[in-house]
């Protein structure tokens, strides 16, 4: 059994990442140790370990713990840490499979799982396909292990689990459907369908519910939150999640790669159907529309063409519209906390996180 | 809550498939009903429903129920039916992802999931990739739902679950690693590595443990089986599972497609690293080896070349060796039942299943 205790105060979200990482490393070691007849697990568990070590904000684990703290001043028990770690392992699964779907080459400055696995078999004619196939399996393993982390909670898995299960189930289903909506909206034809409603629906399921609402509710639910508290957390989390993703979309086009770790061409080349792009397409003159249609989703997009697209985003007012939407959503999120029946310490932490999330540069 | 009762006698494994299918259909309907904001679930749940309706032997659910019956004469409770249905839903996940990895076009006489999803988007330039990506998500959803089926067991999920969980975890990890081993062994270069030990290791994890041992143990464990009974079931299941797969491999090369529903060229074209192929490669003369090396894993393999390969399998004695291995493993499985501490009715059912599994023609 893995146990984890912390002597830090519960209202310092900063200590959550380290605690969750330690729990994940211990859990992965346990998986290897429990199957001595399967040495291949060294490879798979090692890759997950490397992905964790390579970075990540652990925003979902942090929100899960803050969710607990929004309901009670008691120290979070094992079940909360397990749930937080489970969210992070689920996230690794989602990243691995998303990177396959997006054909991404790097993640957190390292080769993506399918590229790394292909490189291991570079002597084979089918190395690229083998890399993708093995990465599908790695993702499947991470998904299954994210359930094991919940299941092996001690003491009292049953009561905690039965409380949290419907939320975990909802989180998973919503995230997978959100990814499907993203697939449907993206690609070379995306620029032909300027649909702000569809773009916002992707954000709702792929980010707002998955990254903010469900993790917070999961932690709160484990603490025995009532429907009023859960609704208050939702009223905060959904607009904040939308603001968070809208900021991400702006950083994907205008960000500083040295801070974000991401190219400012990838989203444009992928034809990601963002609110930014959809708004610009709706407002564009025929000449501007032509710049967008020939550039968005074009895998061979040049920096010069990307620069013209950025000018169109500004000239149509799309960039300003998205900035305004971010401010508006952030205000909604903060307003939802004003009379929320949540512990004051957690409310203060949530306010600080909201401001940080929407003004960030990385 | 979904309930299921049966008035049939517990020692008629024939009624298990229908009962499990009914439970799965109800479960899928519940998933759709519980997310009215996600109409996309109609598509995904509908595809899983169609896969179930298209066929399948339900061998894992049957063995799970027989596992229960090997320990007790009591009627299997809800938890056993849930576990049985969960195994089948897990199997659908495995089929969907395996078919992506094998680039298979048909399954149970219908288009595979990724082909079917590609066809839905045939108006898009990226239809094939979109089909694969959406099918990865469909498999992920089925994997997650296979856990939900266990979790939503009533009454008494906790006690049953905590008993069964380590076995379910082992089954999943072993199956995924087994598939990885299969990927490593198959492909255009497979004929260059005649490795019977590797071929048998794939069988052990991808079939013997996944299809026979773990489902039986899962049902027995839910009935409170002791280590002696679990060991006896393992001693029966592992050789039987190997015999089952060896028969499958022979049917994949020599079977009647009208009975098996499978082409007798697919396994050869895929370069599946079977014990049959590895044995033939080890025993082949240089001329015979050349026939094998140019044919196995050759996507353009002709029926004439396949016919020559079949002759080499016979002339090297590989076909006879595999037939002998099947008989030997079947005898081992049956001998394991002789003094096993299992209920007589279940033992009789297991004997009948062993004989049927290794003499089957489909």
In the CATH hierarchy, the third-tier topology of the largest domain in chain A is known as Farnesyl Diphosphate Synthase
**Rg result of chain A:** 21 Å
The CATH H-level superfamily of the largest domain in chain A is: Farnesyl Diphosphate Synthase
Shape of chain A: flat
Number of domains as seen in the coordinates of chain A: 2
Write the layout of secondary structure elements.
2 copies of one chain form a homodimer.
Chain A: H1 16-33, H2 40-53, H3 59-69, H4 78-102, E1 106-107, E2 110-111, H5 113-120, H6 127-151, H7 157-185, H8 196-222, H9 227-254, H10 257-260, H11 266-270, H12 275-283, H13 286-295, H14 303-315, H15 318-338, H16 344-359
Antiparallel strand pairs in A: 1-2
Helix pairs in contact in A: 1-2, 1-4, 3-4, 3-8, 4-6, 4-7, 4-8, 5-6, 7-8, 8-9, 9-15, 9-16, 12-15, 13-14, 15-16
What are the defining features of this structure?
two-stranded antiparallel sheet, homodimer, Farnesyl Diphosphate Synthase, mainly alpha, 2 strands, 73% helix, 362 residues
């Amino acid at each position: 059994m893995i146990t984890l205790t912390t002597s830090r105060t519960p209202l310092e979200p900063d200590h959550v990442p380290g605690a969750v990482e330690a729990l994940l490393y211990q859990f992965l070691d346990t998986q290897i140790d429990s199957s001595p007849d399967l040495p291949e697990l060294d490879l798979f568990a090692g890759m997950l370990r490397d992905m964790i070590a390579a970075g990540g904000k652990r925003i979902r684990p942090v929100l899960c713990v803050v969710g607990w703290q929004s309901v009670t001043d008691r120290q979070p028990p094992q079940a909360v840490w397990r749930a937080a770690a489970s969210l992070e392992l689920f996230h690794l699964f989602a990243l691995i499979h998303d990177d396959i779907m997006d054909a991404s080459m790097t993640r957190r400055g390292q080769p993506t799982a399918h590229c790394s696995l292909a490189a291991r078999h570079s002597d084979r004619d089918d190395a690229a396909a083998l890399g993708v196939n093995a990465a599908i399996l790695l993702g499947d393993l991470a998904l299954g292990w994210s359930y094991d982390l919940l299941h092996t909670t001690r003491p009292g898995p049953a009561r905690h689990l039965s409380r949290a299960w419907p939320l975990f189930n909802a989180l998973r289903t919503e995230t997978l459907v959100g990814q499907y909506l993203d697939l449907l909206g993206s690609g070379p034809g995306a620029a032909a369908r300027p649909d702000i409603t569809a773009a916002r629906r992707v954000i709702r399921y792929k980010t707002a519910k998955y990254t903010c609402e469900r993790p917070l509710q999961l932690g709160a639910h484990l603490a025995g939150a009532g429907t009023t508290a859960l609704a208050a957390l939702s009223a905060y989390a959904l607009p904040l999640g939308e603001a968070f993703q809208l900021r991400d979309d702006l950083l994907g086009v205008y960000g500083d790669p040295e801070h974000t770790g991401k190219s400012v061409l990838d989203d444009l080349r992928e034809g990601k159907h963002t609110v930014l792009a959809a708004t610009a397409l709706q407002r564009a003159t025929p000449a501007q529309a032509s710049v967008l249609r020939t550039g968005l989703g074009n895998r061979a997009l040049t920096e010069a063409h990307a620069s013209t697209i950025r000018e169109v985003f500004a000239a149509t007012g799309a960039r300003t519209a998205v900035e305004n939407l971010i401010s508006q959503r952030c205000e909604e999120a903060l307003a939802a906390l004003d009379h929320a029946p949540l512990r004051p310490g957690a409310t203060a932490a949530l306010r600080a996180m909201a401001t940080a999330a929407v003004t960030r540069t990385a």
